[in-house]
Amino acid sequence: MTATEPQFVLAVVLGTLFALGTFLVLRRDVVRVVWGVTIISQSANVYLVTMGGFAGGVPILGHGGHGGGHAATDPLVQALVLTAIVIGFGTTAFALVLTYRVYEEHGTIDLLELGDRA
Amino acid sequence: MSQQFVIAPLLVGLVTAIATLLTRRFGRAQVTLSLLGGLGYVAAVAWLVSSVDPLGAGNVVSYQLSGWQAPFGITLVADPLSAFMLAFSAVVALAALVFSASYVDSFGQRVSYHPLFHFMLVGVTGSFLTGDIFNLFVWFEVMLMSSYVLVVFYSGPEHTRAALHYVVLNLVGSAVMLLAIGGIYSTTGTLNMADLSRRVADPAAYGGFSVAPVLGLSALLFAVFALKAGLAPFQFWVPAAYRAAPAPVSAMLAGVVKKVGVYAIIRVYFTVFAGAAISGLSLPGLSVPDGGSALLSFYGPVLFLMAAASIVVGGLGAVGRDDIDGLLAYSSIGQVGFIVLPLAIAATATSQEIRVLGVAAALVYALNHGFAKSLLFMASGAVYDAVGTEEFPDLGGLSETAPWLSAGFFVGALALIGIPPLSGFFGKLLVFDAAGRTGSTVGIAVALFGAILTIAYFSRAWNRGFWGEPSLLVQHGEARFSLVAVVVALALAIAVLGVGFDVVMRAAEAGAHAALDRQGYIDAVLSGAESAATGGGGGH
């Protein structure tokens, strides 16, 4: 039972993060929307790590003699998350630059005002 | 056997993208390199297509990157289905590239138009070829990152707004896709599509996991693919983004990038998840027949509703538009409905014959839409280039001042309406045939309604933009030869495809067989790895 405990805590944290992200995405302020998207994608990453489970030992260090007995935690999900984080950095940077550009073009970052000018 | 050709289009695209990035300061050289790269890409795809041989035996070839065995490493798979999609994408991409060489102004060329275009092409190619769902996510991101920048390319007020919506929506989509992939991995224990297909078909042999969560997660994944394809409840980003992007980029977005979503739907649901059987699934109003493909028949009604809604929403939206690009963007929502409608029929069909027919109809329609819609977007770009506007109230009489351009537009419109002998006729015919053979009255009615709407909005576009007295703006505008030439060349290609339809049909059928042949796909990907492993490391 103790092995599943961290997962339970993480599930609660994940739920909170997703809720926070969704709340921010629904704001009128573009910067908050971008923060919301970033939080959502980061919580997707945390979720991905959780999917690997925490029952085992450290993947690479535990592989040798010291790990003995129990299996290692799945290292694949950590590789996946690494990829996802890199992609997330790129897209977040782009979204922030785009926000700045939107401010330059429209003189506002209020989504409702953006809508009026179309 | 040499299987390196699978990676050839990817490498050509990547090398071209980097080369054009490095030669950014040397205008002419960069454009020449970019065009050469486009030609090289077409050649690489031709090599791939001829090696896969979709008109003959139609083999499935897998390439294990770095020699890592299939379920563990990343696999690239080329089969008649991906060869079909790649082949028409390559032709459309080359046409768009030639068009943009003279359409995009020299400043635009300098600010990295060409590298972005090629990176987008690399993303599209990777999505068609990958045999791994996480890798599919990565290629989607490669494709989307470049398309974000291309949508905001002119960076005016409208463009930043459209790009903002497009970016935020796709970022949320990406997060959802990650969630679905993570869940599928955690449930089934694999990411490789062939391995996944094997496991969901026989969960008892692989640790006895439950298939029901896979259905939910695959539905989450489906929403992301539908977003990429611009299917009905997820269509709202399409018009703004297509109008904002430069004409050749809209041509690529509508003609090729949308088809990546369609391809992903075919590949993932007809090849990977088709074998999964779910017992005890009872949803209100949804009958799941017994048999091996219960998961697929869950998607039948879903696909059907989305296709019908797309046809109606897209068609009605297009009729009301007052500018060419807006009309074409809405039309492309409707046309994707036509592509997905036969897929819905194929998903619920019980006989193999109708399944093949349905998927083949979708492929033929995707090809027709790829050619015709990219032609129309480029024609609209050429009109804008000549006249300086694409609002119908300011246009009129283009057929007098620019007869060839108008002829090209006319052919594209006829192809989407479905007039013989153009390729669109056969696409429509196959859609109706598939609906008719399963006795789906509602399907026929929706398709008929959509077809009538297509005629309505294109005749309206023709009447207001191309016929009648030339307006003042039109009289002073002159269409550039190089732009018109691309449009006319694509129009000829559509006519040639229609006349030589036999070849297209055989290729589409081979693609449909490949999509439905789960065992063949599994064998090709997984046994190829084992033979490579036993064959020793001397392969390279």
The number of helices of chain B is 21
Largest interface: A-B, 33 and 31 residues
Number of strands of chain B: 2
Q: What is the percentage of strand-forming residues of chain A?
A: under 5%
Radius of gyration of chain A: 20 Å
Question: What's this, in brief?
Answer:
Chain A has 118 residues and is an all-alpha fold. Helices cover 69% and strands 0% of the residues of chain A. Chain A has helices spanning 5-25, 30-51, 75-106, 111-117.
Describe it for me?
The complex is a heterodimer of chains A (118) and B (540). Chain A has 118 residues and is mainly alpha-helical. Chain A is built from 4 helices and no strands. The longest helix of chain A is centred in the C-terminal third of the chain and has 32 residues, at 75-106. The radius of gyration of chain A is 20 Å and the shape is elongated. With 540 residues, chain B is mainly α. Chain B is 75% helix and 1% strand. Chain B has a two-stranded antiparallel sheet. The radius of gyration of chain B is 22 Å and the shape is globular. Chain B starts with 7 loop residues before the first helix and ends in a 6-residue tail after the last helix. Chain A binds chain B through residues 25, 30, 33-34, 37, 40-41, 43-45, 47-48, 51-52, 76-77, 80, 83-84, 87, 90-91, 94-95, 98-99, 101-102, 105-106, 114, 117-118, and chain B through 134, 137-138, 141, 145, 148-149, 152, 155-158, 160-161, 163-164, 167-168, 171-172, 174-176, 178-179, 181-183, 185-186, 191.
Topology:
The complex is a heterodimer of chains A (118) and B (540).
Chain A: H1 5-25, H2 30-51, H3 75-106, H4 111-117
Helix pairs in contact in A: 1-2, 2-3
Chain B: H1 8-22, H2 27-52, E1 61-64, E2 75-78, H3 80-103, H4 106-129, H5 133-151, H6 157-188, H7 193-201, H8 212-229, H9 238-244, H10 247-272, H11 294-319, H12 324-348, H13 352-387, H14 398-401, H15 403-417, H16 423-437, H17 441-466, H18 472-476, H19 481-499, H20 501-516, H21 518-534
Antiparallel strand pairs in B: 1-2
Helix pairs in contact in B: 1-2, 1-4, 2-3, 2-4, 3-4, 3-10, 3-13, 3-19, 3-20, 4-5, 4-10, 5-6, 5-10, 6-8, 6-9, 7-21, 8-10, 9-10, 9-12, 10-12, 10-13, 11-12, 11-17, 12-13, 12-16, 12-17, 13-15, 13-16, 13-19, 13-20, 15-16, 15-17, 15-19, 16-17, 16-19, 19-20
